[in-house]
Amino acid sequence: MFQPVSVFVGLKYSLAREHSFFVSFITWVSLIGVALGVIALITVISVMTGFESELRSRLLSLSAHATLSSGGAPISDWRERIRDLQGARGLVGAAPFLDMDAMLSRSPDMSGAVVRGIDPSLEAQVSTIADAMREGRLSDLKPGMNAIILGRMLAYQLEVGVGDTVTVMIPDSASSGGAIVPRLQNFEVVGLFEVGLQENDSVLALVNLQDAQALRGLTGPTGIRLRFDDVLKAPQLAREAAKRLPTGLAVRDWTEENAAYFRAIRIEKTMMALILMLIVAVAAFNIIATLVMVVNDKRTDIAILRTLGMSPRGVLAVFITQGVLIGWVGTAIGVILGVALALNVDVVAPIVEHALGVHIMDDPDVYYISGLPSETRALDVVRIAAAALFLTFVATIYPAWQAAKTQPADALRYE
Predict the structure, then answer these.
(1) Domain limits at 280?
(2) Considering the entire predicted model, what is its pTM?
């Protein structure tokens, strides 16, 4: 279809200056529209991908890639189970844990919390909590000392600091004939952590595993947390590792524990992509209008070309070449500027905020992430560029087909 002569004529029509002002104006609007649509898509998708990666890293800073549990029952032989896991493909570390819902109080303040019992010597293998310590150290959680480390927001709610004492209350029905009564224990605050995720900083508290077992009256942790060298392959690797253990331990990976967060992000990315693709669609409609006007303007030229022996397929190629050129140039400009903007969004955002007098994300109480992260993936850029090229190509088919149907005799009848 795309003979060299057809391509040459199509390029000549595209670059010719004798078009009317209106046709030239619509052509430039179409080109700019395609470019703006591609820029917006690349930038927004990159920012949302950055949000997803940042949120995942912060969620996993205190949560392992996968957990093994026995339905709330203690795993008394957890050390043996960890030894069984050694050598599993991709496994970086394993550590026990014991989570319990509790109420923390320091008169007159009170707040709900999740108290997690951990082994400080193994915790660094499955989380980055040691890097998030703002006061104190993880090693301060010594067994039998009833020491506790609080999230910074939780400590702020209770108005406590390092050296203060808080009362931990958990429900207990095992020793009271089925009636639920509180079990109380005083803990000394020995440290504060902050991971930058409100859900953890305002809810989570850490104690030594032995202290947590004593408070709950259990003989072992309720689960084992696992960390792998590839977080994206963790669901598959966790199930492979679990085959090394006796039956009875359930596997749960990070995609299940935080499914709501990432499902929401995926839906938002999809909807934003569809909405912003409408910009490219509008530009494609402008390409249709441009080519329709060019076809009407070039009816005599089309007739002459047909008379000289050009086939209808050749005429079709002429105008497809003209429309595709607009789409390619617009897409190329959009990709270059979009990637440049996405890679420098942390520089551009403060300039925009200063110029408009607004702050996009400055309240950690509202947003999980106070900055504006961006992660540009080559596959996303390729998909966006391919979608833009496809839409602009489809837009050229109808006017090019109309041009190919032009009959030389009818076009030259009044010439």
Answers:
(1) 4-57+261-412
(2) 0.64
